[in-house]
Amino acid sequence: MLIRRPHDIKPSEITDRKLYINRRTLIASAGFAAGAAAVGLPVQPREARAAPLASVPSPLSTAEAPTPKNKITTYNNFYEFGTDKGDPAENAGSLKTSPWSVAVEGECAKPATYTLEDIMKGETLEDRVYRHRCVEAWSMVIPWVGFPLANLLKRVEPTGNAKYVAFETLYDPKQMPGQRSSDLTWPYMEGLRMDEAMHPLTLLAVGLYGETLPNQDGAPIRLVVPWKYGFKGIKSIVKIRFQAEQPKTAWNIAAPGEYGFYSNVNPNRDHPRWTQKKERRIDGNSRLGTMIETAMFNGYGDQVASLYSGMDLQKDF
Fold first, then answer.
1. CA triplet 159, 190, 50: central angle to 5 degrees?
2. Which among 2, 11, 114, 272 would be 20 to 30 A from 161, CA to CA?
3. Looking at residue 50, what is its pLDDT?
4. Any idea which of 86-100, 108-122, 163-177, 274-288 has the lowest mean pLDDT?
5. Cα(first)–Cα(last) distance of the chain, in Å?
């Protein structure tokens, strides 16, 4: 069962309680805390930034075993730091993630530029173990730490004209050497329909495995939409915009015949260059992972299929 009650969760699936440190220690080590405005700290070496985060288990987690942390943090798509899977871990250490701010614009009552501390204020962080499916037919199970995107969107009060939410990644070729290439149109852009953005599964992640988010995984704040392909999970967000028209998205601009706006996991619609019916689950069992059948909506169909009722999912891909 994908949506699970707290008493269904096995103790082995819950983040080690040793990671739940007190609030004063958290503020001193991580730069921000759940439920409190925090202080910004100077950026530190990559190895020193993975500070524990105070968080609570979420009943929205899958029961599947998480991918080992060393694989989640070394096998990444983050084109801002290179196109090879190992490039982000190699090149992202110099990204300065503190201080950080996110501009909120467009059709909302409270447009402003919010610091990360503003965004985190009052939020209770949750541990959510989600499947992460990449379009190249590989997948992971990642224990994210974050809070519902809907919480932030409600706080800034979108107007009735807001039909979509657009996102942008930081654009800084000095820090992100991959942006000097023409592989994509920069800055990286993504978007969701409002009902997708407000869905309780949609997460703003600030950590994984109970610790602050590593640079190569999208620090300091990124999007996670578990029923969509991984490239919808835009990283290092600096702008959120409410708008009436469907946003442009980076991969749809680059290859519209291959990457649609919705990008829902659909094993019945093959990518033009490979099948989507199976995926290689990167796990601790072998170097290459385990081949498994791909589930519709990445296994979250019971929760999200109603969002697309009446749509042609071959056409609206």
1. 105
2. 114
3. 76
4. 274-288
5. 26
- Alpha-carbon torsion angle 195, 201, 207, 210, nearest 10: 160
| Structural tokens at position 251 | 């991969």
Phi first, then psi: give them for residue 285, nearest 5 degrees.
Answer: -85, -30
Domain ranges of the chain: 6-308
The 10s digit of each residue's pLDDT in 133-188 is: 999 999 999 999 999 999 999 999 999 999 999 999 999 999 999 999 999 999 99
Right CATH for 6-308 from 3.30.365.10, 3.40.50.300, 3.30.70.330, 3.90.420.10: 3.90.420.10
* CA–CA gap between residue 71 and residue 86 (Å, rounded): 10
Question: 59-72, pLDDT tens digit by residue?
Answer: 999 999 999 999 99
Neighbours of 250 (CB within 10 A): 21
Dig out the tokens for 157 from the structure.
């009060």
Is 288:297 a contact under the CB 8 Å cutoff? Answer: no
The reply to whether omega before 272 is within 30° of 0 (cis) is no
Structure tokens at 216: 């190569």
Alpha helices in 184-242 (DSSP H): 194-197
Q: Report pTM.
A: 0.85
What DSSP string describes 180-209?
A: GSSSSPSSPEEEEEHHHHTSTT-EEEEEET
SS3 87: helix
